[in-house]
């Protein structure tokens, strides 16, 4: 399905971090054909820098990489305020129960075992991006509602202040009847 040029700006961005270039190309091609914008990193350090700069909607992260492994990358993503809310899916050949439990315990939102089925990868990516975007909308709406409440509260305080001032003036005995009536 061809992608319209005006849709390119709103394409969800998926950051793929894997130390195998063939994996990056394969995952990138599958997701690009499904309508996602792809950013790719060959190691954890590059992936962390891209996560901070590219602001991806989702990160697909290999668990076992040379140098910084996926768990360390995930821990550093969770430490930084600008990357903490980005959902991370482990895309890895590790299929043992301990790795799965460790992944979820450390904050991964999902876990896909290589070799993967393209349709499953696309479906899981779509679900987690939709969830993130919905959560982002809720946060924006809550912030807008809070700002609106603050404005209304400020305006009401001004009106109540005027009412209280007028009530105080009416209570004072020193004023003449004409002035109180006004």
Word description of this protein:
With 182 residues, this protein is an alpha/beta fold. 58% of the residues lie in helices and 13% in strands. It contains seven helices and five strands. The protein has a five-stranded parallel sheet with strand order 2-1-3-4-5, with helices on both faces. Helix 3 runs parallel beside helix 4. The radius of gyration is 27 Å and the shape is elongated. It starts with a helix and ends with a helix.
Question: Summary?
Answer:
With 182 residues, the chain is an alpha/beta fold. It has helices spanning 5-8, 21-33, 44-54, 70-79, 97-105, 118-171, 177-181, and strands spanning 13-17, 37-41, 58-61, 88-92, 110-113.
Arrangement of strands in the largest sheet: 2-1-3-4-5
Provide the low-confidence segments as ranges.
1-8
Cα radius of gyration in angstroms: 27 Å
Q: What structural class do you assign from the helix and strand content? A: alpha/beta
Average of pLDDT: 86
């Amino acid at each position: 399905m061809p992608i319209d040029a005006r849709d390119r700006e709103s394409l969800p961005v998926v950051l793929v971090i894997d130390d195998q270039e063939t994996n990056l190309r394969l995952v990138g091609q599958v997701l690009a054909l499904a309508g996602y914008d792809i950013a790719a990193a060959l190691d954890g350090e590059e992936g962390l820098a891209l996560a901070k700069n590219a602001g991806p909607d989702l990160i697909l992260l290999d668990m076992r990489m040379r140098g910084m492994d996926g768990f360390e990358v995930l821990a550093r993503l969770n430490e930084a305020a600008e990357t903490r809310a980005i959902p991370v899916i482990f895309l890895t050949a590790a299929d043992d129960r301990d790795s799965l439990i460790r992944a979820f315990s450390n904050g991964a939102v999902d876990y896909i075992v290589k070799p993967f089925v393209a349709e499953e990868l696309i479906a899981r990516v779509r679900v987690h991006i939709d969830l993130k975007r919905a959560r982002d909308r809720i946060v924006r709406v809550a912030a807008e509602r809070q700002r609106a409440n603050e404005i209304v509260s400020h305006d009401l305080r001004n009106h109540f202040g005027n009412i209280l001032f007028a009530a105080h003036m009416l209570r004072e005995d020193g004023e003449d009847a004409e002035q109180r009536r006004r």
